[in-house]
Description:
This protein is mostly helical. Helices cover 77% and strands 0% of the residues. It contains 15 helices and no strands.
Amino acid sequence: MTEKxxxxxxxxxxxxxxxxxxxMGIFVRRLGAFGFSAAQIVSIRVTLAALFFCVLLFLKDRxxxxxxxxxxxxxxxxxxxxxxxxxxxxxxxxEMMPLSxxxxxxxxxxxxxxxxxxxxxxxxxxxxxxxxxVLAFGGCVLVCGISGEGLTLPGLLxxxxxxxxxxxxxxxxxxxxxxxxxxxxxxxxxxxxxxxxLLICRPAEMxxxxxxxxxxxxxxxxxxxxxxxxxVIPFLAYTLGLRTVEAGRAGILATxxxxxxxxxxxxxxxxxxxxxxxxxxxxxxAAVILLNRK
Length: 294
């Protein structure tokens, strides 16, 4: 058992996913500078990711494209109920309240994951998990900062919806992995999310922006990099990690995302690093170390 635990790559894969997600700000800001709206950036990201995942599934195991009709609702839940729903809620929350407040509501996801894991998977709620959850969430609050300005009841519900949708990927993904490979799960999840994104991204307007780009090859390359770095690599790593890591624990480990985002803000965008941010980073690291102690 000890040897097996030492060789378990799951936690490292979850942490890797969180680190890649933390770099999202670089790509979102860059694509925003090209004139794309938040919904269009989401559509670019999930559509190209769906293409990558389908090619990967084709190369790994073509039989993985076959799924049971009974499991279609499960994949609809992953594509629409998780990926697309949480993204739409998150960007809507950003428009309704300060970014820091929206980010904190998004990072309620480990709480949702732990509650849903108790309900559906009967995961044990240990003192170590609770302490790690408190440390991680407290660290996120300090790293992101929170003002509470502009927070209304509709905004609160939408923000909490982003956290719930974010957390649903861990729950539904764990269920799907009992029957399907990670490659099948990610391919169908993003195919459905991409289909749904066409309803909100104004495809004709987005096409015009591509046509009007001064350097189209450069823009297309950056779109591909956005999909690879912020979706394909992290979601594949996270899904592979879910095979051997409990959903509740995975949700807490993934809170390294705001830590990485804060560091990128400092070193890439020259944003100030406050004492509270440093304390928040230390709290998140403490949660990760606590969860990985034997």
